[in-house]
Amino acid sequence: MIRWKPSARRTRIALSASKYRQRRPPSDRVRVPEVIPTTAPKPEYNIKHIRNHYESYSQNCDARNYKAQSGNPSKIVGLFEEWAQSKSDTRDLRVRNNVIQKELSHTKTPSEVKTGSQYVTGQERTKLLQEARGLKNKLAASTIKEQQLLGQIDALAAELPNLTSEETPLGSDPNVIGYINEDVSTIETHPARSHVEIGADLDLLDFAGAATASGWGWYYLRNEGALLEQALIQYALKVAREHGFTIVTPPSMVYSHIVSACGFRPRDQSGEQQVYNIEQANKKKGSDRPAWSLAGTAEIPFAGMKAKQVLDAADLPIKVVGPSRCYRAEAGARGVDTKGLYRVHEFTKVEMFAWTLPGAEQEVFDSLLSIQKTILENLGLHCRILEMPSHDLGASATRKQDIEAFFPSRQRRKHDHVHSKEDNEGWGEVTSTSICTDYQTRRLDTRVKNVPGSKKPLEFPSTVNGTAVAVPRVLAAILENGWDKEGFVRIPEVLWPWMHGMQIIEKKK
User: Fold this and answer.
1) Are residues 446 and 403 part of one domain?
2) Annotated binding residue at 261?
3) Is 303 annotated as a binding residue?
4) Per-residue burial over 345-370, b = 16 or more CB atoms within 10 Å of its CB, e = otherwise
5) Domain carrying residue 99
6) N or C: fewer beta carbons within 10 Å in the chain?
7) pTM above 0.70, yes or no
8) pLDDT tens, 83-109?
9) 328 in a known ligand binding site
10) How many domains in the chain?
11) Integer-rounded Cα radius of gyration of the chain
């Protein structure tokens, strides 16, 4: 099985995978938006590489839990052979058609046609004309067939998961590769209170009002809770800017075909909706107006920002960071661990995104991880760093590392019925960093020129993305870890400049 190496310039083609804790196979087919305008980026898949390594691509599907797509590579080989045979037959038809047209062009009189050194009658000319008309129909049918075959090949290629990095553990279990602010198992922890209880006591969160206004999975941040959100945004932007990132505020609504190109599916493997689609008023049936979706992460509008553009190698890496509201239609299982702010439908996140030269992704990947570690360390959170397994890689990722923070309220489940070791230990994901190689740029028609050492005029750059701060989850971790038994929450010192002079959050009098 081929596994991707950072220096390799291979095609990475994927469909998104589920979280490793869910461990469910993806759907058989990606849903395509109803209308894709002619102005949309035209994807380009490396079909030659898939054909030449179809067995490795099939094995890669199995390794990433894409059982339904494991037969796609061999289907592509068969369809390509059919296309090549049709192409050969079409060339023969064109050769014969050219011969007839040449013969017809040598007409001496309306009733005579020159064939070699002989002249033929008008009746024979009529037969040639009939044959020419038949060839024209066959050529038209062959052209349609070849276009259909290429369309089927592209559809199958679009569903294949990305080639997997050699650093990625195969299967469902991540590898713990490090800790931030030491392993929490080595320290003494106070009696746990959930952030939901703390938020209610200190008048920071309002879930009841949000349930009435919007339903489950929505919330209001109040008082110091709202200030903490803004403080976290400003602190994350400050750290990223110090590392050379340009601040950009992206749109929250994007075309649905851009969402698909970035590897995000409208529905999950059980058919439950994940992406919020925007219903357009007064849109007539059959309209060529493209559909819109609400972005689940700023990674999508950031990637779309350079769609159908040619970048210069001298300008790479291009690194952007920005805050945005994110929308997830499917907010996960409703249990103890997802109660409160941990899994919600709408949230604020500061996202980092970069375009790099092919093969130069690792340096930016390490930079994003360094920023995440700095932020979480200075917030005083105990975290662990995970190399994520193949089953957990998203659509475009070839490698992914997550950072999970310690939530004291989760640890108290150690004597309850739990589904995984993680539930016992109290960890919860707060950041993620992924190398996506050229998966997104191939689908978005983003190219780069003047690549050193390349014989091609244009290459596809790689993309890397990572969370600077997912506000609700980090806010929840701060409340739980900063809680004091005297009834207040300590605010991390790095957030003080944006907290109007407050260093602790106390109960309202």
Assistant:
1) yes
2) no
3) no
4) bbbbbbbbbbbbbbbbbbebbebbbe
5) 73-158
6) C
7) yes
8) 999 999 888 888 888 888 777 776 555
9) yes
10) 2
11) 29
